[in-house]
């Protein structure tokens, strides 16, 4: 599955960034926790989409159906 962020469907607030992503006819809400390690979500959309796709493929979905991404989901340098 390859999710893509819908243009104009990114909402930033103090604690997280909400993105609406699409794969085929399915839509998914993806929340990225705002912290200094993640930085500017908009500049990392390709990476965020890959992480969200992987988590959705593995069933890593919250009780409300959202996919949550935190800094622990980011690739670590040197690994």
Please characterize this protein's 3D structure.
- It is a single chain.
- With 79 residues, the protein is α+β, with helices and mostly antiparallel strands.
- It has one domain: 2-Layer Sandwich (Double Stranded RNA Binding Domain), CATH 3.30.160.
- The protein contains one helix and four strands.
- The protein has one helix at 45-57; strands at residues 4-12, 16-23, 26-33, 67-69.
- Strands 1-2-3-4 form a four-stranded mixed sheet, with helices on one face.
- A hairpin with a 3-residue loop joins β1 and β2.
- The longest helix has 13 residues, at 45-57.
- It starts with a strand and ends in a 10-residue tail after the last strand.
- The model has no long low-confidence stretch (mean pLDDT 92).
What are the SSEs and their pairings?
Blueprint: E1 4-12, E2 16-23, E3 26-33, H1 45-57, E4 67-69
Parallel strand pairs: 3-4
Antiparallel strand pairs: 1-2, 2-3
- Percent of residues in helices comes to 10-25%
**Structure annotation, total helices:** 1
How many separate structural domains? 1
Largest β sheet strand count, sense and barrel closure: 4 strands, mixed
- Strand fraction band? 35-45%
Shape: globular
Précis, in short:
The chain has 79 residues and is an alpha+beta fold.
Features:
single chain, 4 strands, 1 helix, Double Stranded RNA Binding Domain, alpha+beta
